[in-house]
UniProtKB/TrEMBL annotation:
Keywords: Flavoprotein, FMN, Oxidoreductase, Pyridoxine biosynthesis. The lineage of its organism: Bacteria, Pseudomonadati, Pseudomonadota, Alphaproteobacteria, Hyphomicrobiales. The keyword Oxidoreductase applies. Its cofactor is FMN. It comes from the Bacteria. Gene3D superfamilies: Electron Transport, Fmn-binding Protein, Chain A. This is Pyridoxine/pyridoxamine 5'-phosphate oxidase. It comes from Phyllobacterium ifriqiyense. Coiled coil: none annotated. Residues 23-91 form the Pyridoxamine 5'-phosphate oxidase N-terminal domain. It holds the Pfam family PNPOx_N.
Length: 101
């Protein structure tokens, strides 16, 4: 199945949809299909973004490893907000897909 234009945020079972997308990416991406840009925001409202590796997910959310004292760790604990954006180059899609959590 190819990546569709379904909206992750409007799905009744968004993680089932994400599971389909990731399964397609694992089959088609040459490397690191679990690499994801992780954006956070500092106490002044300024955004920061870096790559992490997704280590798992379930209906509770997405799992990645980080030092809690890193910039991303501090900012997530401070704001309790983050955004993720995967770039699955081999999955044809009319637009990009992102999730928050
Ligand atoms: C492909 C790739 C995967 C990475 N995966 C992780 C990861 O899973 N966890 C992590 O803490 N840093 C990972 N890094 C390093 C981060 O991008 C970042 O440089 C580092 O964690 C410091 O980020 P921070 O100071 O904004 O917290 C990865 C870098 C790359 C290029």
């Amino acid at each position: 199945m190819k990546l569709t234009t379904d909206d992750f945020t409007e799905k009744s079972e968004p993680f089932a949809l994400f599971n389909e997308w990731l399964g397609d990416a694992v089959k088609t991406e040459p490397n690191d299909p679990n690499a994801v840009a992780l954006a956070t925001v500092d106490k002044d409202g300024l955004p920061n973004v870096r790559m992490v590796l997704l280590k798992g997910f379930d209906t509770q959310g997405f799992v990645f490893y980080t030092n809690f004292e890193s910039q991303k760790g501090v900012e997530i604990l401070g704001s309790m907000k983050a955004a993720m954006c995967f770039h699955w180059k081999n999955l044809a899609a009319a637009g990009s897909h992102s999730g928050t959590g």
